Amino acid sequence: MHVEGSARVIREVAWSAPPLNPPVVRLRTAAVVPGTPLGARAAAGGFELPDDVEIARELRDLLTQVGDARFELRSDHMLNLLQELEGSLPRDRARLTAVLDEYLGWPRADQARFAVGVRLGVFRRLADYDDATRRRALEARFAEYEQPSAGELLEAASALRSRFI
User: Fold this and answer.
1) N or C: which end of the chain has fewer CB within 10 A?
2) Count of Cβ atoms closer than 10 Å to residue 147 Cβ
3) Main-chain phi, psi angles of 114, to 5 degrees
4) pLDDT band (50, 70, 90) for residue 63
5) Tens digits of per-residue pLDDT, 115-150?
6) Is the model more confident about 12 or about 42?
7) What proportion of the chain, given as a percentage, has pLDDT over 90?
8) CA end-to-end span of the chain, whole Å?
9) Per-residue confidence band for 165, with pLDDT thresholds at 50, 70 and 90
């Protein structure tokens, strides 16, 4: 995501919108699908998707860089890690930023497990990670494997994204 350019476009569109009809910005997380030109480029090492933690950092930066732009934010796609990022800006900026800061403040292993859990349909919101039943369900999926590293889990979460397209 090109944060500066995206923030500039959002500010310009928001500024030009009628006051009673703010624009809607829908977040869409990219996925690389094998067999496509982008998939071939990625396989050849010419393109690399950011992992979910990097995307969360970029979204955090975006919320800061849009300034006082007035718009509705929607994170309404299954490819998005944090579907709870929905609100009216600038009013809800603090709440949305707090969601991102919470995730970004977690240990990397927890960030990675949450990302995989979202891709597997175990979690939908950050609060779901505190649910012992959901956590056990996720851990059961890992039981037959050697414990993967956080980096391996984030790679797996990125790979799982392409299955939703």
Assistant:
1) C
2) 9
3) -60, -45
4) very high
5) 999 999 999 999 999 999 999 999 998 877 777 788
6) 12
7) 69
8) 19
9) low
pTM of the predicted structure, to 2 decimals: 0.89
Say if residues 31 and 79 touch (Cβ distance below 8 Å): yes
Q: Which conformational region is residue 70 in: left (phi greater than 0), alpha (psi within -120 to 50 degrees), or beta? A: beta
| CA gap 159, 165 in Å, rounded | 11
Dist CA 158 CA 112 (whole Å):
10
Residues 143 and 72: their CA atoms lie apart, in Å, by 41
Number of separate domains in the chain: 1
Q: 51 lies in which domain range?
A: 3-164
pLDDT for 49: 87
Question: What is the per-residue DSSP string for the chain?
Answer: --HHHHHHHHHHHHHHS-TTS--EEE-----PPTTSHHHHHHHTTS-----HHHHHHHHHHHHHHTTT--EEEE--STT-S-TT--EEETTTHHHHHHHHHHHHHS-HHHHHHHHHHHHTTS-SSGGGGG-HHHHHHHHHHHTTS----HHHHHHHHHHHHGGG-
